[in-house]
Amino acid sequence: MSKLIIKNIKLLVAAAHTFPEKVAGKAMQDLPVVENAWLLIEDGIIAGFGPMEKIPSTENAEIMDASDRFVLPTWCDSHTHLVFPQSREVEYTDKIKGLSYEEIAKRGGGILNSAKNMQEADENQLFADAMQRLQEIVRWGTGAVEIKSGYGLTTATELKMLRVIKRLKAESPVTIRSTFLGAHAVPTEFKGNPDKYVDLVINEMLPAVAAEQLADFVDVFCDRGFFSIGQTSKILEAAAKYDLKPKIHANELDFSGGIQTGIKHKALSVDHLEYTGEEEINALLESDTMPVILPGAAFFLNLKYAPARKIIDAGLPLTLATDFNPGSSPSGNMQLIISMGSILYKMLPRETINAVTINGAYAMGLQKELGSITPGKKANLIITKPIPSIEYIPYAYGENKVEKTILNGIVQ
Ligand code: NIG
Ligand code: FE
């Protein structure tokens, strides 16, 4: 058995012997900590922790000294599109000149631009590029990530993307969940007849994805100018037959009914949420669906900010994720997201940490194995550089506070 003891930890964060599956409302400010602590890892699993006065015998164990350093669970980034063919800075310039996300999309830019490049993209190259992005986000402290398809928009190319994600799952130490997002945009050939594309998603893509067991979840971009609530419902109903739970893009561009539609279909999460009012909050309160805000996309596209405070103060849980993608959020840096959470969304530092750990894990169905420092969970851990406080993490935006990332008990 491999044993690793981390000792002299200045502050062990989000550590408890039993941990809730998600935290909501006022409890989002609670973050159990142990000062001057030790942590034991056995065969890649957290086996115990406690104060230094009660450190167990360190015989046969590898020892790591974490003096002046904090130890936290790794970030769980529950919403990304990090398999993509190339960056899209041309649109970025158009955007700076004043074109909206929808105008860019209407001109065949946006998602359709990535989809065009994705058709010819070499599978090995896609894999290598995505692997590099994964390695980069690990350096920023991410230990679990959800990755979506949705730049294929043909059966063959959606499958190609999902196979790349499957290979990443097998070859990367990061815990990965994959989501089938065939309904990301209506491809040009179906312009004028989007229902026909929805039929293709339901009758051809979904069965093929399920047959190869390529996805854990299903997603639809349910918003103005993309897919209607009727089309979304049809896709989610069909996906339920294959046990694919929804995690959907909703209410980024309008009060689209996307949040309620997701909840009706027992979505694990609804994501974006710029247009969230009382009705949407009430619907969420009646559900187990996790609200997920994507600060990077709102920042990059100059959108209005989702009402994070109202959501939490209503007693709901909240997750923050990167939305890492080439069009609306070209960064997978969760530390920046944590800072945005506090600076732009007025979340307290402890709330932001809960949002990107246990709640992020819940938004991927991983709350039993990740998201806190709890015996029995995977040893996916961040060792920080010497830092003075928890508050310093969102405060020092732009600085990488992570010194080492440990995944499955192994230093990366
Ligand atoms: O989450 N909103 C929809 N989809 C992505 C954007 C993808 C793209 O522009 O390539 C998002 O922001
Ligand atoms: Fe997205």
Description of the molecule:
The protein is α/β, with parallel strands linked by helices and 412 residues long. It has 15 helices and 16 strands. Helix 5 links the parallel strand 7 and strand 8 (175-183). It is globular, with a radius of gyration of 21 Å. Bound molecules: N-(iminomethyl)-L-glutamic acid and fe (iii) ion. Fe (iii) ion is lined by residues 79, 81, 249, 323, 325.
Query: Kindly, what is the distance between the CA atoms of the first and last residues, rounded to a whole number of angstroms?
Result: 20 Å
Examine the secondary-structure arrangement and name the CATH architecture of the largest domain: Alpha-Beta Barrel
Number of beta strands: 16
- Total helical segments: 15
Parts with pLDDT < 50 across at least 5 consecutive residues:
none
Q: How does the helix and strand content classify structurally? A: alpha/beta
Bound molecules: N-(iminomethyl)-L-glutamic acid, fe (iii) ion
The overall average pLDDT, rounded, is: 97
Instruction: Predict the CATH topology of the largest domain.
Output: TIM Barrel
Q: What value does the Rg take, in angstroms?
A: 21 Å
How many domain modules? 2
CATH superfamily of the largest domain: Metal-dependent hydrolases
Which percent range fits the helix content?
Answer: 25-40%
How would you sum up the global shape? Answer: globular
Q: Report on the biggest sheet.
A: 8 strands, mixed
Q: Which CATH top level class of the largest domain fits?
A: Alpha Beta
Content of β-strand: 15-25%
